[in-house]
């Protein structure tokens, strides 16, 4: 019997809406069609924005405790239905069942953090009397919501990265329109269900599914949209910044993250952390380890242990509890990474293990002797590939780490505090992890990069700051206090 395909609807202004044109959603592991979602048009974007205008006023008028209650109730709904959410992530994305469960837990944490940070949206007093002639004035700074937030989200964390935009937007009194990745829209729709169940006013949240080439420009360029939050590739982010005009943006644009291993490091811990950091979610992780620079005296030991541990990883079906590495998001993406590996090899790189591809599955791959001229050395590979190279000094490791245009996060393993602080000050990255790989994030921390890795910071508190505007209020008194 043929499996029944789920025909999903998108959410606009509290209403579930279908359209004649649709987008197919496939399981990247099997290639099986699992659902369809509406292919929204520019007029659907206009409808979502008109509803968001009402929703922004509704949310701005809610008391803080009401917003907190909605966020906590949405988190509780997800917690109660965690199995459904995890299964949805597994079906539409590259994540294994163990990775999906972790993402669901993080989503719950993100929404609960959003609720808690809602109570901490505070201003400050301004001593106007610091300037002669203003002795009779008192004032303060008040934070107001920006209004309508456009959130464009990627495929690699289809639930929690949506929550990182939706949670802070709701906490700070805004309306938010989500445009999820076309390959993984289902988790965003399940998240919307959680908010409707929690009693969120109808116009506050819309999830508009569709082709980015059709609906993104009308969304980000609309005058009523005052904040654009995008997570994705550098070229797309650059294009968005050129189109949005004078409005606030937050851009998380990926990386080519390095980790440094010095000769005083705990090699076993360094290998364990970097293998996990390189190959989790089949390498499709913006802070995943892509380059490792190892001090010469421990290079062979590190490399051999890394290869041995990599070969023990099990690649297979996402629902299998023992699977470590699932498929990439599509066969096309796996073919791209395979071509980059071949290019590096043709330029002189050595393939130490991996590199074989079967449809969307690409073996975890370790490369050495990779020339700087290769794509894989310079760009974000976003696949299960890591480069391991020997260096003679920390200075050389820092110089090579800083070489690319990316600067999201980096890691260093060392027992020397002087070396740690040198790395902290000289590595050109938004985050530096000591005795850990670059692949470290908690949902409360400021998250973002420099150079080509983006603009601004996510992390609940920091997103709330970006999604609010400061307003100065001053009172002129008749008498000096």
TrEMBL record:
The keyword Oxidoreductase applies. Residues 16-473 form the Aldehyde dehydrogenase domain. Signal peptide: none annotated. InterPro entries: Ald_DH/histidinol_DH, Ald_DH_C, Ald_DH_N, Aldehyde_DH_dom, ALDH-related_metabolic_enz. It comes from the Bacteria. Keywords: Oxidoreductase. Belongs to the aldehyde dehydrogenase family. This is Aldehyde dehydrogenase family protein. It comes from Halalkalibacter kiskunsagensis.
């Amino acid at each position: 019997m043929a499996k029944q395909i789920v025909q999903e609807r998108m959410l606009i202004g509290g209403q579930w809406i279908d359209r004649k044109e649709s987008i197919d959603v496939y399981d990247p592991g099997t290639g099986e069609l699992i659902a369809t979602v509406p292919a929204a048009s520019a007029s659907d974007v206009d409808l979502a924005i008109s509803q968001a205008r009402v929703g922004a006023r509704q949310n701005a008028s809610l008391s803080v405790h009401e917003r907190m209650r909605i966020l906590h109730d949405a988190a509780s709904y997800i917690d109660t239905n965690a199995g459904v959410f995890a299964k949805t992530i597994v079906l539409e994305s590259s994540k294994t069942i163990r990775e999906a469960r972790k993402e669901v837990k993080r989503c719950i944490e993100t929404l609960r953090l959003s609720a808690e940070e809602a109570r901490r949206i505070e201003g400050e007093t301004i001593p106007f009397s610091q300037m002669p002639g203003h002795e009779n004035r008192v004032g303060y700074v008040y934070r107001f919501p920006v209004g309508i937030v456009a959130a464009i989200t990627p495929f690699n964390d289809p639930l929690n990265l949506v929550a990182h935009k939706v949670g802070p937007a709701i906490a700070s009194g805004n309306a938010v329109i989500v445009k999820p990745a076309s390959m993984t829209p289902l988790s965003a729709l399940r998240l919307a269900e959680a908010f409707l169940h929690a009693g969120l006013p109808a116009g506050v949240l819309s999830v508009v599914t569709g082709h980015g080439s059709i609906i993104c420009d009308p969304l980000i360029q609309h005058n009523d949209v005052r904040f654009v939050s995008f997570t994705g590739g550098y070229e797309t982010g650059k294009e968005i910044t050129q189109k949005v005009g004078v409005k606030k943006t937050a851009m998380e644009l990926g990386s080519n993250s390095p980790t440094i291993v010095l000769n005083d490091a705990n090699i076993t811990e360094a290998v364990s952390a970097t293998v996990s950091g390189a190959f989790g979610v089949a390498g499709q992780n913006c802070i995943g380890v892509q380059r490792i620079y190892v001090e010469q005296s421990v290079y062979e030991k590190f490399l051999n242990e890394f290869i041995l541990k990599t070969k023990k990883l099990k690649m297979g079906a996402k629902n299998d509890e023992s699977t470590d590495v699932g498929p990439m998001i599509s066969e096309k993406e796996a073919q791209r990474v395979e071509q980059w590996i071949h290019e590096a090899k043709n330029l002189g790189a050595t393939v130490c293990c991996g590199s074989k591809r079967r449809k969307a599955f690409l073996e975890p791959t370790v490369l050495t002797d990779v020339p700087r001229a290769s794509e894989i050395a310079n760009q974000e590979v976003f696949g299960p590939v890591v480069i391991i190279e020997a260096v003679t000094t920390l200075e050389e490791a820092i110089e090579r780490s800083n070489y690319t245009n990316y600067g999201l996060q980096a890691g260093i393993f060392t027992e020397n505090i002087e070396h740690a602080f040198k790395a902290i000050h000289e590595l050109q990255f938004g985050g530096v992890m000591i005795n850990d790989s670059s692949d470290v994030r908690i949902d409360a921390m400021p998250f973002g990069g420099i150079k080509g890795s983006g603009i601004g910071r996510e992390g609940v508190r920091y997103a709330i700051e970006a999604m609010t505007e400061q307003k100065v209020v001053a009172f002129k008194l008749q008498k000096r206090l």
